[in-house]
Design a protein that fits this description.
Rossmann fold; 7-stranded parallel sheet; 16 strands
Length: about 280
């Protein structure tokens, strides 16, 4: 059973390194959660190294600009590792004729990698950063396009394994939801972001570069996403602070109030055991 904490200060002294999710913990896609930024800034002042670890398909320079614009303070973190950063290695290693799925803002993912954007019929690989229009489309809108590619055995690189994220008070689908459709069609998905190990190895590498050696027992992950943040931390073998008021809030919250019995039943059903939990990072 996860232990409820009231403030990040209650536990931060136990850890040297914090791997913190971004979307859903530090901001909701529209504005920053001010108290979360202050909590991480305070953790750094107390000696912790904070690496933001996000499934954003953008390479980290673009995420720095994005979160700064939303109001996340630079003082809240030391380094950032994105799914886009680690996915670029998958793209570079693959065929060069790609069918790209995503918005124009996602194109930095493939810049400088020597790839050619082609039609679905001519593609040797798919690179999916997200939806063409995530405000109106659903994953099923892609089934007809993807089915012939799956039959041809074309691999699918997913640059954002999240299924949904918060945008204000709405849940918006992500590339991971399209990847689920593709695998259901029998296609192969290649993923480097959370919950997979490449992004965690990269984040640990950034933390070591920032502070030097540390023990795995002194690493804490923070996140709100069950299939990504929670399972990723659990499979990587590090402690987790679960943020309950994120994308799964409807399973155990009424308004701002958390039903702890329902929360613990939810965690048990999912087969996970975060060490700590709180509604929002403060």
């Amino acid at each position: 059973m996860a232990t409820r904490i009231n403030s990040f200060k209650d536990i931060v002294g136990r850890y040297d390194v914090v791997l913190c999710d971004v979307w859903g913990v530090l901001h909701n896609g529209v504005e920053a959660f001010r108290e979360a930024g202050l909590a991480l800034s305070d953790a750094r002042q107390r000696g912790a190294t904070v690496v933001l670890i996000t499934n954003s398909p953008r390479p980290h320079p673009g995420v720095i600009v994005q979160i700064r614009g939303l109001g996340v303070p630079d003082a809240a973190y030391d380094r950032i590792v994105t799914s886009g950063d680690v996915t670029r290695a998958l793209i570079q290693a693959g065929p060069k004729k790609i069918f790209f799925i995503g918005a124009e803002r996602d194109l930095p993912l493939i810049e400088g990698l020597g790839v050619e954007m082609v039609s679905a019929a001519d593609a040797d690989i798919i690179v999916c950063a997200g939806f063409f229009d995530d405000e109106t489309e659903t994953p099923e809108d892609y089934r007809a396009t993807l089915a012939p590619l799956a039959r041809r055995g074309v691999p699918f690189i997913c640059a954002n394994p999240d299924l949904v994220v918060e945008r204000g008070h709405k849940l918006i689908p992500c590339a991971g939801a399209i990847a689920e459709v593709y695998t259901a069609l029998g296609g192969e998905a290649r993923i480097a972001g959370k919950p997979h190990r490449p992004i965690y190895r990269a984040a640990i590498g950034e933390a070591r570069a920032a502070r030097g050696p540390f023990e795995a027992s002194r690493v804490l992950a923070i996140g709100d996403g069950m299939p990504t943040d929670v399972r990723g931390a659990q499979e990587f073998g590090i402690d987790l602070l679960y943020i309950g008021a994120g994308i799964h809030a409807a399973d155990y919250m009424t308004g701002e109030k958390t039903d702890e019995a329902r929360l613990n039943a939810f965690l048990k059903k999912e087969g996970v055991a975060p060490k700590w939990w709180m509604p929002r990072l403060i």
